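hey so i finally got around to running the thing on that chain from the lab meeting. sorry it took forever, my laptop kept dying and i had to restart like 3 times. anyway pasting the input first so we r on the same page abt which one it is
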Amino acid sequence: MNRVLVVEDEKSMRDLLSLMLRKEGYAVEAADGGIQAASRLAKDPVYDLVITDVSMPGMTGLELLRHVRKTSPESSVILMTAYGSKETAIEALNEGAAYYVEKPFDLDEMKVVARRTIDQKRIATENADLRSENRGLKAELKGRYRFDGLVGRSGKMKAIFHLIERVAGTGSTIVISGESGTGKELIARAIHYNSGRGDRSFVSINCGALPTSFWRASCSAT
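ok and heres what got predicted. didnt touch it at all, straight out
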């Protein structure tokens, strides 16, 4: 269940927002100002969303936003104010606010903004996880196909390893010849995964298994 912290010094607005968000299925806590919100965040910084008023005594919403970005960077922040200005909105967004909502606002609008903000946070987290997984996969592929599958300590094998490293940095087409079972595909993989195209798929095609009609069609096309 997504956790939301509502920060509003006006009790009626604080209660209304809290009730509305609870009906939407969120786990909601409330604070009567920025100072109390900062105290809650110090004890438990794991909130998916912080919705805060801008004009509050003690600590303004902008000050709370800066505090959240510093101490709970994974929490998204929506600012709301009855005294909106273009300059304040720009400052809020530059400081890292997800949205800036002017009062009076429609409750349905706030529902949409809250859901959109949480969805964007979830997608960003999933994308970051995927990027991390991809980096790990690329590292694994490079390690697996660097020279691990190629065995040999002779001078000729060392010359082959050196040649692989050298040609992998070029964009040239490379022809690898040899008898069946001599490791042509292992060398091709080593070249591919150590080249500038190493983050792309390696596709192995058995040309001998292609039907004669394929070669006839290819020749006709050229």
